[in-house]
Every structure is written in structure tokens, then in C-alpha cells.
């Protein structure tokens, strides 16, 4: 891990770039925006997105992968999903990023290397940025998707497009976590975990967007309705 782990300099990677972040909510299937997504310089996807993507849904999801933000938990319970470097490379994923850089995140990273025993370069967010994110949420740990959004909103990217995020107010897209597609079941699952609070994340997100000086923040129709 000490030979492979690096800090991901998001500000450098996203500066003056058009960036799209694709979440796992079913709202990604509201419109066929695949070509639009692929037109962005950088496309960030979350957790199991590489596993559920296929050519049949590319009209909606696009086919471009630049960075994958991942929890580094590969079990079904956490929702991260298996990490397969060979498949990730085929999809064009350049960097695998674990946003959580506190002690829990480093432990998850260490366990990842124990499982795989491979010298593979992986990334975490800077401790300073991660502390900034967690300070906004109080005692709750950010979800991987929220970490990606918050991080991008704190860069000088030229444009930011967000789709597939409803802060758990709608089901996951089909095939992503079918055991939790029912919103009530998913809410109970989140409460049982006790580490995330999507409602707090949503309020922080709204404030970030409404107070942002970046006028080129584009939200899909479902997310736009949620914050108005």
C-alpha cells in the first residue's frame, strides 16, 4: 500500500475541464443523454457503475469512464462492488479513487491490498479536503457520490454536469443494487448502517449549488426539480 497509494490532486485534474459525474439513481434513465455525457472532458463514475454498464444502456449512461470513485469495500452489503483492474482498463478508467482518507479509509485501503496482493497505483483525496467534507456533515461519513460532487464543486472546473443523483429519494437504477431498489428498504438499510445521512448531504449540496460562483453547474431534470 505504501508503495502504491497516492493523493489524488483533483484541482489539477479538473482545472478548466468540462466534468460530468454520473450517479446510480434511476433518474439517469429519464433522458437519453449518453452522447452528451461522452462529450465531457472528464467523466467520473461511482462504485458499481463499471459493473452494471453495458452497450444496451449507453444511450442513457454514455460510455466514457475517466475516474472511478470507489468505497474500496468489495462486499455486497457496502455497495462498493468488486474491483477488477483488467475490466476497468478495458472501460478506460484512468484512476481508481477512494475519497475517505481518515483512519477508516486507510484501513479499508490496507484490507484491499491484503486481498489483492498487487502493486497497483490507487488514490485517496487529500486529508485536508476530506476533513472539509466531513466538517460539513457533522458526525456523518460522506457517501462516495457526495464526496465526488463536493470535491468537484471545490475545483476550478469549467463546467459540471450531474445526473443520477437524487440523494436516495428515488430507487437505484436497475441492476445496481436490486436488493435495495425499494426506497423504504434502502432507507432502513442506511439507518441500520448509521454512518451516512442523505438528508444532511442534500442540504449541504443545495447550499453549495445555490452559493456557487460557478454558473455552469448543470443538473439533470430530476435533480433540478428537487432543489427548487
UniProtKB/TrEMBL annotation:
It is a single-pass membrane protein. It is found in: Endomembrane system; Membrane. The keyword Metal-binding does not apply. It comes from the Bacteria. Keywords: Glycoprotein, Glycosyltransferase, Membrane, Transferase, Transmembrane, Transmembrane helix. One of its GO terms (molecular function) is sialyltransferase activity. The keyword Transport does not apply. Its main location: membrane. InterPro entries: Glyco_trans_29 (IPR001675), GT29-like_sf (IPR038578). GO terms for cellular component: endomembrane system; membrane. This is Glycosyltransferase family 29 (Sialyltransferase). It comes from Salegentibacter holothuriorum.
Amino acid at each position: 500500500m505504501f508503495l502504491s497509494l497516492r493523493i489524488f490532486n483533483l484541482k489539477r485534474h479538473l482545472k478548466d475541464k468540462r466534468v460530468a459525474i454520473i450517479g446510480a439513481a434511476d433518474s439517469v434513465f429519464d433522458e437519453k443523454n449518453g452522447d452528451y455525457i461522452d462529450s465531457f472532458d472528464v467523466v467520473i463514475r461511482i462504485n458499481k457503475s463499471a459493473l452494471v454498464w453495458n452497450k444496451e444502456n449507453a444511450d442513457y449512461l454514455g460510455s466514457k469512464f475517466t475516474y472511478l470513485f470507489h468505497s474500496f469495500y468489495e462486499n455486497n452489503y457496502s455497495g462498493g462492488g468488486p474491483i477488477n483492474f483488467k475490466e476497468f482498463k478495458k472501460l478506460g478508467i484512468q484512476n481508481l479513487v477512494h475519497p475517505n482518507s481518515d483512519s477508516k479509509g486507510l484501513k479499508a485501503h490496507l484490507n484491499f491490498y491484503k486481498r489483492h496482493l498487487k502493486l497497483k497505483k490507487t488514490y485517496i483525496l487529500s486529508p485536508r479536503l476530506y476533513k472539509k467534507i466531513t466538517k460539513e456533515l457533522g458526525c456523518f461519513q460522506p457517501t462516495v457520490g457526495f464526496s465526488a460532487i463536493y470535491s468537484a464543486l471545490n475545483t476550478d472546473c469549467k463546467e459540471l454536469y450531474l445526473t443520477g443523483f437524487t440523494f436516495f429519494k428515488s430507487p437505484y437504477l436497475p441492476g445496481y443494487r436490486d436488493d435495495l431498489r425499494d426506497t423504504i428498504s434502502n432507507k432502513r438499510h442506511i439507518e441500520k448502517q448509521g454512518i451516512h445521512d442523505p438528508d444532511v448531504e442534500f442540504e449541504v449540496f443545495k447550499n453549495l449549488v445555490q452559493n456557487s460562483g460557478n454558473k455552469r453547474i448543470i443538473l439533470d431534470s430530476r435533480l433540478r426539480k428537487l432543489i427548487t
